[in-house]
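User: I'll paste a sequence; please echo it back and then give the predicted structure.

Assistant: Echoing your sequence first, then the prediction.
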Amino acid sequence: MSALGESLIFFVFAALAVLGALGVIALRSPVHSALSLALVFICLAVMYVLLNAPFIAAAQVMIYAGAILILFLFVIMVLNPQIEIGEGRLRGQRGFAGLVGLALAAEVGLILANGQLAPATDKFTPEYIAQIGHTQIVGSLLFTDFLLPFEITSLLLLVAIIGVITLAKRA
C-alpha cells in the first residue's frame, strides 16, 4: 500500500475515533455512549494494523471491543441509570473534569517536549519482529518490563467487578 493510501486511511479512522470519543462524552444515553466507545476501539484496531502490529489489533478487537465493552453494557443494563443529576453537582464535575483534562494535556506536552516518547532502544526493528514474532515479543514485554502495570490493571478490574456485584445486589 502506498504512503498516500496509508495516510488517507489513518486520517479517516483518526477522525472517526475523535468523533466516537466525542460521542462517548456528549451522548445522553449510556448505551449510545458505549456504542460510540466501540467505534473508538475499532478505529484504534485499524491504526494498529497500519502500524504493522496485527496481534495488538486483534487483541484490541477481542479484549476491548469485545469483552470490556460487553462488561460495560452489562453494568449499564444492570444498574439502569435513570438518576437525575442536579445542575450544581454537574457543574462541579465539569470543572473537575476540565482541570484533569488540562493536567493531562500539560503532561503530554511535557513528555513530547522532553522526547520521552521515542523508543528506548532500536531493538524492535521490523526484521527482529519478523524473526521473533509479535506474540512472543508482546508476551515477553508484558511479563518483564510491564508486569507491574499489568498487575495493577488486573486489580482495578477485580475492584470494578466487586463494585458491580455490590451495586447489583442493592438494586
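Residues 87-114 form the longest helix (28 residues). The CA atoms of residues 105 and 171 lie 38 Å apart.
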